[in-house]
Sequence to fold (228 residues):
Amino acid sequence: QVQLMQSGAVVKEPGSSVKVSCTASGGTFTDYAFSWVRQAPGQGLEWMGGILPIYNAAHYSQKFRDRVTITADESTSTAYMELKTLTSEDAATYYCARGGMAVAHWDFDLWGRGTLVTVSS
Amino acid sequence: EIVLTQSPATLSLSPGERATLSCTASQSISNYLAWYQQKPGQAPRLLIHDASNRAPGIPARFSGSGSGTDFTLTISSLEPEDFAVYYCQQRINWPPITFGQGTRLEI
Fold:
């Protein structure tokens, strides 16, 4: 079954970092792009950045460029998103989303279930 | 950055009625627009890509139209499971990829 499995919910202190993983099952990992989209409670969707594993090329929203790093490990079919210097405004559900093949790389036809990041001291 | 503005913010309709949701881009995005449905506690689901192409498994009552700056998602006859939040998204001018603020479709 084709799916994206994300790491579990975490609680982080302000000023710390969080690293979320997204493991793809089914399909060829390098055929796709993987993006990270976050959603604060009761709010809309916000694209943070994405990566094309075949080129190992990551692209970021200017808003997050200084704090986020997106990587991919082809050997484990896993994409990662690390966000540094967390504040209360980073409390959100973080989704991994896949594009490519049936749709353009930057449309998202498969989503993970989301990872809840809570920021609290 | 391209801004997508969705209207209305909330749409109140009944099952069996027709729903028309709008998305306006701050500049032309050709047909590089997608629509997503999100239900409470769930991840978004792709409905339409490239403005008018239904994603696999999406019922025919969902249709998309438009190009340039003005786009529409139409649900021809609402089913109870269609009540959700709908987002549009553009990918022509990135980064960043941007989403609209959403339209809540409620009974």
